[in-house]
Amino acid sequence: MYLEKKVEVRELLKKYGKSIVLDGLSFEIYKGEIFGLLGPNGAGKSTFISILTTLTKPTSGDIFIDTFSVSKQPDKVKTGIGFVPQDIALYPMLSGLDNLYFWAGIYNLKGQEKRNRVEEALSVVKLEERAKDRVSEYSGGMKRRLNIAVALLHKPDLLVMDEPTAGVDIQSRRYIFEAVGKLKAEGRTVVFTSHYVDEMKAFCDRIAILDKGRLKAIGSVEELKKEYNVDNLEDILLTLHF
Ligand SMILES: Nc1ncnc2c1ncn2[C@@H]1O[C@H](COP(=O)(O)OP(=O)(O)OP(=O)(O)O)[C@@H](O)[C@H]1O
Ligand SMILES: [Mg+2]
């Protein structure tokens, strides 16, 4: 089967002072796949995501999204990315609805289209009933779901989420992955990080395992199990001496 490249990571290196945080990563993410980044605290996942979403510049190497360089052509790639950061980024004193309208304005959406997109985003994350409540009254999982709704407003081809399910209850998790499934069905690409191996196994087409800034393994769960000759993914993580 021919797989179209959506993201190409080429010899990506990131240093903070003398410490190497990403150590020469090279791999691809295909169009329409759900791609998971797994690794212990400090492995470099958020740093990778920050470079992917143009917020941080690499020390050397680059990432290409649809052939555009994230470091040299950030404006070309930004419009096609929806980003859900590890830390919640919302206005707590505004309602969920008003947060969405605020961001829809930033994305230059107007009139009926703006209203439609806001409603659609609310429904994808199933927050219609709480839309008029202040965000400060939301649970952690609801805030995460609203953050995802914000990232979906401009219908990005690539959704990037940094630990979208951290501290989230089962119901919110299910809504998050239902939303991810919808995006996949529309041919969009989703990249996310998580510490939950079970959800990686259940939802990812392929997984990359990062440790100390290095790519330790990449592939589907079946491929990884075969390569490491183990019965489950958790065993691979243990062989990596995290
Ligand atoms: N702005 C910064 N300045 C200096 N060091 C940084 C900076 N940002 C991250 N680092 C370091 O880079 C390394 C990787 O951090 P990063 O946040 O990418 O890890 P992570 O895999 O996302 O971890 P976690 O699972 O805890 O979220 C860590 O050692 C961290 O201390
Ligand atoms: Mg992180």
Your description of this structure?
It is built from nine helices and ten strands. The protein has helices at 45-52, 74-78, 96-106, 111-124, 140-152, 170-185, 197-203, 221-228, 233-239, and strands at 5-16, 19-30, 34-38, 60-65, 68-69, 81-84, 158-162, 189-193, 206-211, 214-219. Helix 3 (96-106) packs across helix 4 (111-124), helix 4 packs across helix 5 (140-152) and helix 5 (140-152) runs parallel beside helix 6. It is an alpha/beta fold. It has a domain at 87-155. The protein is globular, with a radius of gyration of 18 Å. Helices cover 37% and strands 26% of the residues. Magnesium ion binds next to helix 1. Adenosine-5'-triphosphate binds at residues 16, 21, 39, 41-47, 86.
Distance between the termini: 34 Å
Would you tell me the structural class of the helices and strands? alpha/beta
The best one-word shape is globular
CA radius of gyration: 18 Å
Oligomer: single chain
Largest sheet: 6 strands, mixed
Please provide a brief summary of the model:
The chain is α/β, with parallel strands linked by helices.
Task: Give me some keywords for this one.
single chain, 242 residues, alpha/beta, 4-stranded antiparallel sheet, 37% helix, binds adenosine-5'-triphosphate, binds magnesium ion
What topology emerges from the helices and strands here?
Layout: E1 5-16, E2 19-30, E3 34-38, H1 45-52, E4 60-65, E5 68-69, H2 74-78, E6 81-84, H3 96-106, H4 111-124, H5 140-152, E7 158-162, H6 170-185, E8 189-193, H7 197-203, E9 206-211, E10 214-219, H8 221-228, H9 233-239
Parallel strand pairs: 3-8, 3-9, 6-7, 7-8
Antiparallel strand pairs: 1-2, 1-4, 4-5, 9-10
Helix pairs in contact: 3-4, 4-5, 5-6
Residues 16, 21, 39, 41-47, 86 line the site of adenosine-5'-triphosphate.
